[in-house]
Amino acid sequence: MEIERKFTIKQLPENLESYPCLLIEQAYLNTDPVLRIRRQNEEYILTYKGKGMLAREEYNLPLNKEAFEHLRPKADGNIISKKRYVIPLENPQFAEGFDKAGLPELFIELDIFEAPFAPLVLAEVEFPTEEAAHAFLMPEWFLEDVTNNPDYHNSNLSKKKFDS
Question: 133 and which of 121, 123, 127, 149 could share a cystine (Cβ 3.0–4.6 Å)?
């Protein structure tokens, strides 16, 4: 089960280059249900995602480079390329009354999209429970919670039409 919230941001964090960065290319073989292939640096993954916004089923299976390259031309729509910075969330804030005991360390996955989606930047935070996700208070540099806006799902971005 994947439980995550997604946000637009006001500004990039300072010292962005000091955080680990993944180069991601992903393509969608299907968007309902979501069937995605991804190259993440030199790792290759096939992902199935069920329906949902905040919480949904997610299954990841390893692929090899040859399988990825075989499936990539079969993808529908836009290929999504982005840089993902993995930023530890120091002292995450939660709504009053939420028990933080036993929570694993949380991370911000900050995605900086390349053309044709640039200058889109999204931040995602995955949670161990829906309660933790609902209680999370976004950092000051986040702008808007777009978790429930389907326009910001990568599978929907893959179907976006652009003027030539």
Answer: 127
- CA–chain centroid gap for 130, Å, is 17
Q: Catalytic residue numbers? A: 28
Q: Which two tokens stand for residue 63?
A: 């692929």
What six digits make up the tokens of 48? 């199935």
Q: Tokens 């393509």 appear where?
A: 27
User: What is the C-alpha to C-alpha distance for residues 131 and 116, in angstroms, rounded to an integer?
Assistant: 35
Phi-psi bin for 62: left (phi > 0), alpha (psi -120 to 50), beta? beta
What domains, with CATH codes, occur in the chain? Answer: 2-157 (2.40.320.10)
- pLDDT tens sequence across 111-127: 999 999 999 999 999 99
Q: What are the two backbone dihedrals, phi and then psi, of residue 31, each rounded to the nearest 5 degrees?
A: -115, -5
Q: Is the pTM of this model over 0.85?
A: yes
Question: Which among 36, 43, 38, 41 has a CA at the least distance from the CA of 23?
Answer: 41
pLDDT tens-digit series, residues 31-66? 999 999 999 999 999 999 999 999 999 999 999 999
Cα 30-33-35 angle, rounded to 5 deg:
45
- The residue to which tokens 């994947």 are assigned: 2
